[in-house]
Amino acid sequence: MTDEQELGALVESAYAALAFKPGEQPDWAQFNAVFHPAAVLALRIFPQDREVSVLDLTAYAEAQMRNGLREEGYSETPGSRSIEITGDVALIRQEFTMNFAHRPAVEALDVFSCARVGRGWSIISVLSDMQPESRPRRP
Q1: What is the pTM (predicted TM-score) of this model?
Q2: What per-residue confidence (pLDDT) applies to 137?
Q3: 44: nearest Cα among 126, 128, 132
């Protein structure tokens, strides 16, 4: 498997782990497995959030399940992706769609920083926000 394929599979695994049916929850073990234990996520978790939150993996799992999401179910559909590799570090720009059961879908962007740590690639950080046309305007 090439580095690009391995990095693509890493990102796909993270998105797949976040999908769950109403009454269930994401597969947090699968999600965490693609991240370095010291990973940092800086993101707007829900479109209506007024600002970006900076979280570790545990805090993200707690924040992701607020706003009745557990009862609703959720998934993310990856779209266009670009990968830039320099030695043992990589930058992935991933467009995706946030799919809510009872709310409109929202277009967003993840920017993953990855590093080859030990024998494989790990996600070190994620920067994420809604695409400008999807993010509600601030008053």
Answers
A1: 0.91
A2: 46
A3: 128
